[in-house]
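so my prof wants the structure for this chain in the tokens format not the other one, which i didnt know existed until like an hour ago. anyway here's the sequence
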Amino acid sequence: MDASEFAVHLDHIRQQRDNVSPDYLDPARFFERTFLTGSLLDLASQVVRRLSGVQVETSAVFNMATQFGGGKTHSLTTLWHLATCGEKAKSYKGVDRILARAQIPHVPQARVAVFVGTEFDAIQGRGGDGEPVRKTPWGEIAWQLRGQAGFDLVAEHDAKGIAPGGDVLQQILGHEPALILIDELMNYISRARKLEMRDQFFVFLQSLCEEARAHNNVVVCVSIPASEDLEMSPEDVRDYQSLKKLLDRLGKAIMMSADSEIAEIIRRRLFEWDLVDAEAKKVATAYADWAVDHAQELSGINPESAHELFKTCYPFHPSVLSVFERKWQSLPRFQRTRGILRLLALWVAHAYQDEHRKAMREPLITLGSAPLEEMIFRSAMFEQLGSNELEVPLTTDIAGKKDAHAVRLDREASDVIKKSNLHRKVASAIFFESNGGMSQSKAVATLPEIRAAVGTPDLNMVDIENVLEGLVGNCYYLNWDKNHYRFGLTPNLNQILVTRRGAVQAKEINERIKRDTQELFNKGTKALDRRFFPERSNDVPNRPVLTLAVMGLDFPIGERSTEKLLETIVRECGTSGRTYKSALMFAVPDSADAIHDAARDVLAWEAIEDDTDTRKQLDEGQGRLLKRNLGRAKSDLKEAIWRTYRYLYLLGKDNKLRQIDLGQITSSMAGGLIELYVNELSRTDEITSGVGPNKLLKYWPPALTEWSTKGVRDAFFSSPQLPRLLNADTIKRTIADGVSQGTFGYAVKQSSGQFKLLHFNESLVEGDIELADDVFILKAEDAQKLREPPRLDHIAIRPAEVTLQPGEQVSFSCSGVDQYGEPFSINAVEWLASSGEVTDEGLYNSGSDTTGGLFTVKATAEGLETVAEVRVMTTHEGDGEGNRLDNERSRNKAVRWTGTVPPQKWMNFYTKVLSRFASIDGLKLKVSFEVPCDGEQGQSKAEEARSGLKELGLNDDVVLG
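here's what i got, hopefully its the right format
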């Protein structure tokens, strides 16, 4: 409907003009669309009672006082139709209630005169074209009541501008019922004052009221504005007060208030059908039940009357109607009924079109659904506010521009909030509830009011507070203080922030990020050694300590340069190879955009806080908001760092770097980033706080009989096959426990190369454990051997074989070896030869007459024996075979040996045999090994062998088959 539909022009209705809506001209339609409020029912019943000649409980003069748009003219129109229709009015909707209230059987038909101050021109007057010209209100009223005869009674008074006296007025009123309706009186008084008609009108009005009181069937109804400061000059205020005193003295003041009935008035005027159907009841019940359940969180909704309230206000949310009564009615330009109707008519039209276009429905029309993006609606709204100064704040922060902050926040929000346009709804509710922060500068929207305005049975109330936080952090004209919100005209801290953000330099941002990153990684547990932002391999030391290298933002995940640097650090430490590869872990950042933005905000807020001049311009609430925003910005930076460092890299069991994605991590998940990493890696057994003795046995290298304590510790930081130790010294506890339990022996290697057992199967504390290359642990069985005293295990004879000519001699020796492979002295040795002679000292003589052959020399000592072979060759044989052997020995002067060495003797084999020749040029060592493997293990073991051979720089041609 056009906005003019809601502006009632009583004089146009009287004249039956074509531009008047049938809703006002047709009495039946008028009463169909009119809701008889308590005030209107009271007025109408008193008037028809007085017109019927009943003077009890009624008045001849009514002074109708209420705010602009409060229903005064509509009430006068009601009286017009009643008086002009008479008995026919009984069939109109609601008239039966008037008669019942008035306690009369019929509606009296009366003569009616209408004077509207905005319509009557004080200079030209009215008339002409066959009618007399009326220059004064008394001339116009006389003409309307009695036609030419009535005007003739005041013709001279009209011409001279002199108010008629009581006698003349008595003749004009006569004996029939008469109703005189005077509207927009102050408008006429302001103009009449300049023509010096003001005093005469006061005289006329007083005389008219006095004469009406003298009749039992005459009623005078006068409406004047209730506001004393609505575009009134001092003279207007003075005259307004005078009129009010006059009418209050002569008549009855009646307030045309409809506070509790405005909902029904609006429904009658805006809708042509019965809205309270089954669907409406269902919606009202759902919202009322929700309001009762959340009564402690809401404002303006009484749980005891919630069901009736939602039913009464349907299809509007109660807050849509009540906000105008609670907040807007004190605005000078606000029109209570007409203004609300005009806004809501545009509102309903938009809601219908919007739902029709988007094929979506909302259960109620709420404050949040106000079509603030529509210029026509905004114009109507600003007219009620009395100013359009809030146009920029509204279109900047709420709606009207595609990049308005609330619109943008909804576009970027989660699906639930985006679908409901919750940022836009909350911002709109704040705008209405805070009254624009203009005439009522202290008017605010409280959190309970906002919840009540935008809350629904399906909405999570927490979302409202999250949305408010987003609006406070982004809007330029939204002020916030202790859960009180208000849109104002002055730019807030957010706009200051935009300027400050632009002044922040990239260098400052990078330095701040590095500082805060180091603080976060240094917070909490000291379990790991931290190395920040390495750019070369020697930036990370090669130590048997669990070390976290925190990569800088210049080395983000997914970049080839990042992967290359990580691989270099793992393999090298400066110019040397890295031993403790498994000790390294890398925290690698994701995209740097979020961190940069968060750091820029922190620096900008700090700059504002440090600027004394800016701080002086802030009020107390903004000062608190500044501190809050700075704290939130620092928190956002912290969370951005947490989210960015979600990726860990470490050496996998395949000896290659492995990525671990920790997912969406936040600071609430642990006391610090290091703690989070440790917790996750401990859960997957990548790191451990310690290992037990039995578990250490499982990690024992098969090639080693003894394992140096330093080697034990280093293994946990060099081999990815083993878990990483949080603290290298915990291995001392493992060794001490193992020795105490008899799982290990604790020994040292002496200068002779022999082991000396220090502790085994006896109490030992970790403080007594030394981690060194010459301190060893032994398995229980080997430790037990060291604990037994040396005893003769076997004897050996040298040389073991010899070739002689008849008559030649050779000296044999016999030595003892204990159970540990060490020399053991023996006393007497008995010698025995199968041919030839051998002395007690082991000197053997083949004998000159001995024929050739293979003989033995046996040595016996302490029940043990050993033999050597003697080949005796004759002279003839020597000329052939002997010469050949001599020549062969001459040609092959080298020591060779081929045999199988058990795994537990590998280290001893090197120590006892090969080390003796290590300094001789030309020493060659050929190795052949064969490892049994089944099924899928074959490929894995082959890869492990190749990897190890590559590290040693050897041929990695390993054959699987």
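also thought this was worth mentioning. The longest helix spans residues 620-644.
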